[in-house]
Amino acid sequence: MQYAPKLFRYLKDKLDQNRHEMGQLVLTGSQKFELMKNLSESLTGRTAILELEGLSWDEFKNYHTDDNTASFEKFIIRGGFPELTREPKLPLDMFFSSYLATYLERDVRQLVNVSNLRTFEQFIRLLAIRNANQLDMTDIANNLGISSKTVASWVSVLETSGQITLLQPCFGNYGKRIVKTPKIYFNDTGLLCWLLGIEEEVKSLGEVTVENYMSLGDKLIPMIEAAAETCTKMMQDPNSPVLGLHLEGHYFNMAMAGGQLPENIKNPDPTEYIPLVEKWDCIKRWDAAPELPGAMQFAKYITGKGILASVGHTQAEYEDIRVAWESGYTHATHFYNAMPGFHKRREYKYEGTVESIYLIDDFTVEVVADGIHVPPTILRMVYKIKGVERTCVITDALACAASDSQVAFDPRVIIEDGVCKLSDRSALAGSVATMDRLIRTLVQKAEIPLEDAIRMASETPSKIMNVYDRKGSLQRGKDADLMILDDNLNVRGVWAMGQLVEGTYTL
Predict the structure, then answer these.
(1) Which residue blocks in 199-342 are alpha helix, DSSP H?
(2) Which pTM was predicted?
(3) Tens digits of per-residue pLDDT, 104-114?
């Protein structure tokens, strides 16, 4: 109806011909009448609004009477969407990721002015973590870097569109029921479980609490353990090019999450990082936002173990960066990306993370030199200010860079304009660039001398990572890694560890 608001004027005339006959017309849709903007008639006194909820447990159970698949645990995991009940083999991740994307693009943009859909998605995931708990709007606002007023507006959108229910507390004093903080509940358990990362049935739901939900949804530490185990095995091969493990996160500023999953982001936790560092020698670099509580202690600990501490996904200002430098942070992760520059708050101006890092001479930086993450003019400025010895170039490439396909491995990500983006186009999500593309961008677009571009791709990163004894220059005793480029800087041959890479030699 929101696309044909004038229709209500004609419906009014039709209904008024026989006001006493009920149910003359049935109109269905995904939005309530009061949400439809620009209606010429409200049909007050002529309509009744009925809200259809998701399928109940009894409805779900009755549908599956023949195949014995109707367990209560499965119902909780899959939720009450009819499509998921009708198609039991439909992948939950595909369904809910698509549902969330369409909900954000369609309903949210119609109901409220959301400039950054990525932040709104992070907001939804934070609410999921707080399911069945009191709704602390100030805490959520602080985590996201937005105002409490904005949080209140977004909560209203979710409530109005049927995603959540706010349960007011029960007091004998009815006034308290109105003003006291409500608890938040997601209306569909399937959507809630997907947002929390709960994919498997649990044996006893009676013992599952909100705290359990949080731990069940946290798969990051097992993933780090698996990555460390794989990395360690690869490093044992004397001809392996793998020299260690870089952990980008998960101790980041929520407001600068970018392509990171918000449910994984948290403050540095020594009960997590100390056991990991003590167990795995392969960890060589770990990134964090220095403004977070515990971030300085984190840096002091890991640098004491010989691990490079780098700042990333941060909103740090100069004082944060200065203290971070003193605590052991010496490097900036994908410089200019996921960090603010010079900015203004009310009438005053503040240096951003970028300017703060420029002000500390020995702070090293890395740039995604594809010409998109960082424009060529800025690449040249980084080169002029930081110099060859303190600037390295990185691809920041995702797995899809190794494929000719234009389809990303992650449903949240699209490949467009030679780069990976979040599907709502609110932020870049990674690169598909290869190192030869970076060299061409530096030389041909940023007008950086070829010899300096090569050094920033080889010598400088090797020195920053303390592996210059093996990588970064052509010297006796080092790994025989070699790339041949033609006059247009296209790759004509590649040798890795002294072996010609099949299919690369075209001279």
Answers:
(1) 210-217, 220-235, 270-279, 295-304, 318-327
(2) 0.62
(3) 666 676 666 66
